[in-house]
DNA sequence: ACGAGCGCCTGTCGGC
DNA sequence: TGCCGACAGGCGCTCG
């Protein structure tokens, strides 16, 4: 489900509900959700810690607590819901945190790919991530230099969280189309001008995604509207908005990949 | 270093 | 209608 704009949307909502709340108890409903520590240690030590802030790093939700840090990755099908005490838990809830204000936090995760870390050292989890695409120090020059450091297909490289942290399948397809770049183009062959346009395109699709509160696709609806602004993703066989050529769908790095064969030449 | 293939999971959709 | 494979917003692993 979530890429950077969807996670940012969730984080902004959680900020209103969670800051200052104390965690009174935790129920782990699917043990493999928790990467570290052991469930018993987790359930014992999280009790009594309060939530100091709600942050995002790439696609990770980061909750600095009074002592440790709780980190959540939603992967494909995760979401975070806040419900009132007494409301029934849902079928796909994997972790419940009971809060001090009469609500509980539910980590819903149908496909069970999502993961949670509870650690005193958040850098162990987040330390190897690439640059944050919307931060001030991610410049067009930065992107250009990093592209030149690899000889890789553009799309898998943009999806590599060590290269750039936060892009996912939808926003990568959209950014490459906006920049008129083929998903299989080799990164070291990108010219400066193209890199600058790609940099601007990445920022633009992410910012617009956040402005629209993310994309709501399939059965999971969270109120975002970016699905109405997609130019290639999910538009196989429909005309390119720039040139009218039917959008093609192929597989690149085992991911469905949408592009315009006219605008995005190899 | 790079890319392909697979595993992890549950659910939906399209084709036969 | 029912079955069955393909596919889904992610990522870590192995292998060549």
Please provide a written account of the structure.
With 266 residues, this protein is α+β, with helices and mostly antiparallel strands. The chain has 2 domains: 123 residues, MutM-like, N-terminal (N-terminal domain of MutM-like DNA repair proteins), CATH 3.20.190.10; 120 residues, Helicase, Ruva Protein, domain 3. It is built from 7 helices and 11 strands. A 5-stranded mixed β-sheet has the order 2-9-5-4-3, with helices on one face. The protein has a 4-stranded antiparallel β-sheet with strand order 1-7-8-6. The radius of gyration is 20 Å and the shape is elongated. The chain binds a DNA duplex (16 and 16 nucleotides) through helix 6.
């Amino acid at each position: 489900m979530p890429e950077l704009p969807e996670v940012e949307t969730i984080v902004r909502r959680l900020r209103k509900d969670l800051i200052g709340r104390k965690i009174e108890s935790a129920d782990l409903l699917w043990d493999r959700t928790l990467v570290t520590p052991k469930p018993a240690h987790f359930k014992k030590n999280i009790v009594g810690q309060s939530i100091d802030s709600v942050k995002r790093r790439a696609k990770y939700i980061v909750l600095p607590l009074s002592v440790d840090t709780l980190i959540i990755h939603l992967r494909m099908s995760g979401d975070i819901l806040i419900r009132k005490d007494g409301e029934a838990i849902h079928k796909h809830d994997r972790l419940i945190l009971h809060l001090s204000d009469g609500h509980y936090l539910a980590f819903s995760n149908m496909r069970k790919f999502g993961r949670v870390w509870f650690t005193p050292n958040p850098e162990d989890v987040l330390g190897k991530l690439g640059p944050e695409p919307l931060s001030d120090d991610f410049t067009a020059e930065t992107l250009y230099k990093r592209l030149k450091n690899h000889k890789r297909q553009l799309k898998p490289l943009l999806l590599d969280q060590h290269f750039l942290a936060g892009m996912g399948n939808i926003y990568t397809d959209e950014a490459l189309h906006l920049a008129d770049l083929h998903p299989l183009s080799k990164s070291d062959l990108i010219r400066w001008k193209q890199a600058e346009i790609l940099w601007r395109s990445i920022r633009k699709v992410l910012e617009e995604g956040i402005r629209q509160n993310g994309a709501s696709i399939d059965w999971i609806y969270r109120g975002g509207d970016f699905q109405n602004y997609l130019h290639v993703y999910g538009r196989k066989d429909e005309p390119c908005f720039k040139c009218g050529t039917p959008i093609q769908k192929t597989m690149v790095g085992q991911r469905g990949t949408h592009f315009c064969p006219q605008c995005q030449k190899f």
